[in-house]
Protein 1
Amino acid sequence: DQQVKQNSPSLSVQEGRISILNCDYTNSMFDYFLWYKKYPAEGPTFLISISSIKDKNEDGRFTVFLNKSAKHLSLHIVPSQPGDSAVYFCAAQGNSGNTPLVFGKGTRLSVIA
Amino acid sequence: KAGVTQTPRYLIKTRGQQVTLSCSPISGHRSVSWYQQTPGQGLQFLFEYFSETQRNKGNFPGRFSGRQFSNSRSEMNVSTLELGDSALYLCASSTNPPGAYNEQFFGPGTRLTVL
């Protein structure tokens, strides 16, 4: 039973446009959410996070939106750059940090110049 | 500050053998987690250690085990290897103790191939 779902295995976007990566979760106990980026032959790198008490968090070109009622979050990248091409993982944690991170299967983003 | 290091980076074993993978966390980090990544499956949680104690365990068979030493370095062991154990094994460390949300820092992984 997959608790964190990234339903789009891949996404292609033109350079300069907005990239929107989506993530759905089923466990209502999750209260902290993170996005990681992964390049080939490297480990995942933390990108941005959001607590369930917020509905938006921004960091430069990256913004994460959380819709608790829909159990849905999204990562917006504006403007998209070729260096953003990577696999993006959504992760969730619950129980005030006492349970491990649960990851989605990832979305491969390709930014075309 | 040095990042998370994992050794070896690549490993080839045959079915039935056992393997030990090593992880050195970022200096000062006391929490270490292990994940298995296979194509199309994302990152599957194996176990988490904090101050030499296993805090959480994922849904993997008993062939998978781990430990953490007093210097926070961690090892994981897989016995009686199966073809399906071929994967990228990732280690992550964080500063936060139990009960705190943690941003985890990942190592580059060990690519295990079982023939």
Note: The mean pLDDT of chain B is 92.
Protein 2
Amino acid sequence: DVKVTQSSRYLVKRTGEKVFLECVQDMDHENMFWYRQDPGLGLRLIYFSYDVKMKEKGDIPEGYSVSREKKERFSLILESASTNQTSMYLCASSLSWDEQYFGPGTRLTVT
Amino acid sequence: KQEVTQIPAALSVPEGENLVLNCSFTDSAIYNLQWFRQDPGKGLTSLLLIQSSQREQTSGRLNASLDKSSGRSTLYIAASQPGDSATYLCAVNGAGTASKLTFGTGTRLQVTL
């Protein structure tokens, strides 16, 4: 079974803090993704990576950056957290264009 | 730009009923379509993946169909159970978009006793 894990289920941070969200997959998948999910807006792609050190912007990359130093790990970075980044963050991975597998999500609150 | 719509937004049915969830998409140039289930406050669980060359996929009580030319997919749930209560999301993987999914906003299903 594919397993995608995220470092925290719940996180509370203050405005202006630097925030790291970590995602790890154990199936040697090439592709990894970060989404955010908001009521009424659905899931929106922030960034994705198709190989180590390779990344591409998704639909809403502003205010975020990513890092992929190892194939199994994909980090989302909020350089200076703001209240409008309060959301559910979901990580996913896939092999090529195949099925995407999701982690349990991190609910981030920025106060 | 691909747009994915799911109707209805919410559905309540008594236990035992068969039901159909609908998903439509605007650009028929897709690579595949995936159905997910999401429980409140949790991540997404993949239910079925249909490749663009396929017409349907089945897993247990679930059957998903795809009509690419008309931009539609349906998820059929047979003999619904209270444990099926969740939000169901469909997502399309557009050809040429490097594995990026476009999601619908989901159908929230409640199966009552």
Note: The first strand of chain B starts at residue 4 and ends at 7.
